[in-house]
Structures are given as C-alpha cells and as structure tokens.
Design goal:
One of its GO terms (molecular function) is trehalose-phosphatase activity. The protein has eleven helices and 16 strands. By secondary structure, it is of the alpha/beta class. It has three domains: 68 residues, no CATH class; 195 residues, 3-Layer(aba) Sandwich (Rossmann fold); 75 residues, Trehalose-6-phosphate phosphatase related protein, domain 2 (Alpha-Beta Plaits, 2-Layer Sandwich), CATH 3.30.70. The protein has an eight-stranded mixed sheet with strand order 9-8-7-6-5-14-15-16, sandwiched between helices. Helix 5 links the parallel strand 5 and strand 6. Helix 7 packs antiparallel against helix 8 and helix 9 crosses helix 10. The radius of gyration is 21 Å and the shape is globular.
Amino acid sequence: MTKQNVIVSDKKSGLNMSITMAMSKSSILTMTAQKPGGYISFSTTELLKNLEINGEGRINAWVESMRASSPTHIKSTPSLADHDRRSSWTVSHPSALDMFEQIIDASKGKQIVMFLDYDGTLSPIVDDPDKAFMSDAMRQTVRKLAGCFPTAIVSGRCRDKVHFNFVRLAELYYAGSHGMDIKGPAKGSKYKKGSRAVLFQPASEFLPMIDEVYKHLVEKTKSTPGAKVENNKFCVSVHFRRVEEKKWNELFQQVKSVLKEYPELRLTQGRKVLEIRPTIKWDKGKALEFLLESLGFANCSDVFPVYIGDDRTDEDAFKILREKGQGFGILVSKFPKETCASYSLQEPDEVRDFLQRLVQWKRPSVLGGQSKV
C-alpha cells in the first residue's frame, strides 16, 4: 500500500483538487498518465465511480468527495486563480438573471413547467435541517409562480415535512425522498387533464427496511457530536453540517458498518449529507419525467421544463433535460461545480428574484392572497 498524490479535475469548471490517497498495487483507479510532480489527474466523475472498491483508499476518497461537494467558507480575499476559475465557469453557466430575456425567448410558444429543489434553493442551508424555513417572501413568490405555471417541489426530504412544515402551499406537486414519494394537489390541478389526484410511491416495499436502518444509524452515530439522522420515509439522511471535519471519516465508517447488512440499499452523497436509498432505478430525473407525463406533457415538443436545484442529486434532473434538449437546469451555487445545468444562480435570494421575474413576465398584475395547506 502506497500513498499517491492525486489531482481531481473538473473539466467544465477547470477546478483541481489535490488528494492524497492510499493505493494498493492493483489500485482503485486505472491510470494512464502521471502529471509532473507525481500527480495523477482524473475527473470527479471517475472518482465517484471508483468509490465502490473496499479499502482505505475508498474511505479517503469518500471523505475528500464529501469535502469537495460541501464547501463551507468563501475566502475573504479570493486569489487571482479563484477569480479566473469563477469567470471561466460563469462563461459556461451564465447567470439566469442576466440571461432572462434569452430564456424567455427560448420558451415562447411552449408551456413552462417549474421544478424546484427545497434546501439551498428555496431556503438557505442551515446547521439544523429542522429549521430550514423558507421566508414569507419566498412562499408568496412560489404561490404566485404556481398560479402561472405547473409547479413541483422535488426534494430529498420527506414529502409531508416539506409540504406541511416548510412550504405550506396546497396547489403544488410534491416529490419527496428524491422523487420516490410523489403527490399532486388534493383538489387536482388546473394544468392536469382529468381530476384524479397524483400519488406515486415506487419504493413502498422498502419502508420497513428504511425504518430499521434509521434506528440502527441513530444508535450507531450517537457517539459522533453534531451528526443528525433524519428519516425521510423512503430514504435516510445522515447530516454532517454540525460535525467537525476531522470526524467525517469516522462518521462515514459508522454509516458503512450499518449498510453492509443491507445490500438492497445504496449510499449516495449530497450537500453535507450522506443518504441511504433503495437500489431501485429512481431519482429526481425520473420524478421529473413522471410528473411531466402526469401533467400530459409526455413526448411533447411544446413543453419547457425548468429545474432549479443546488445539490448533486439534482444533477439527475439536469441531465434528463440536457439529453432531451428541452428546457434547462439552473444550478444554485456560489462555487464552480461540475454540472449538467445550463445556467446558475448564487443563492436563494437570486432564485426568488428569478421566480419573481417569471411571474411578472407571465402576469404583470398577479395579485397577492392566502393559500391553504
């Protein structure tokens, strides 16, 4: 076993991240070239694909991936290189606010359908995930948006929690547990053909197992200060927002020790969260396709889906839109990231500004009002 310096590169953003990994002679990577100074270069996609190999290298790679996808601090005085990377990235992923007129031009003659992530998109990322409340101003904006376009919230959180605790708007579609728990408005939607309410839960058989794993993880991780385990019905989230970075390795090993007894479940990673999900082929991209079909837009050329999200799990939806050549994705991030999204916004306040502009464009005189849960 040897230590090897590795550069993880992001082709789209030009980002490079140096990692020291433990590698056996067989290695967890297929290496074809080595850069000067003893560094090997490969993409973040390659890194994640190779995380399924056992050993110290796997754990180190997971922790480095956790660190890379969960930046916590913006430098008070960014370096010239940081500025150049950001500038290069925004050329490929310009601000959706700056490009608003071009976006509207592309949507003309088509039905816009809105898909919104919750944490980090409609609400800021906070230390306590139970306190990730959206502002009243954001809620009013989303309510008006739903009056103009079919609108869905697509979150990794439990659907009922997002609906009743956070968003509290009855006229939306909600897809919780990364799209594994989908429900439409109880009274139907003016955009949907037919009056039957939408309800879809493709992973129902996993509910007892998810509950069992949740209990084991609560017990297993209680020795790690700051770790919070959340039961999101069809998936379990292990938040490390309050965990000291030096404890991330320990937390990851605790989670893996529980999961090794459940081969039907898989581990994925989001923004400061490890997530345990059923191995079924379902994600936010599949949820987007299902909702478009439910709304009567399957295989339609006159639909324009817009998906806004901040997390790695939103990439499944961004990828679907890019492959279909329909609509576009908007990544919410202050940091350059590898993404399939076409545009960017930096924070929830910019998301609200963008949604307000959509509402004003569609219906300049939209009136306020109350919405019941």
